[in-house]
Amino acid sequence: MKNKPAASTKAQPEDRIPPQTAERLRALLHDLGNALEIVVQAEYLLSNFAGLPAESQEWLGLLRKGTQQAMVLNQTLRDEVRRHG
Known about the structure:
Blueprint: H1 19-47, H2 54-84
Helix pairs in contact: 1-2
């Protein structure tokens, strides 16, 4: 039984994203990051607002969770484009 080669961090030529597509994806990811930054800042400001009702606190928690998930997804996509672009 043969050992599998270790996974390389660089994409093989057949796994590469075409340059024009990679450039467009990078631009879209940059814009997505800018939009996410606005949401992150709004969540931060709301989290520091004293006296939010309990229901609002619950919505703030959902906003925080969704924001964190979106940031992780954005970074994962950036890493994929970097690796395959």
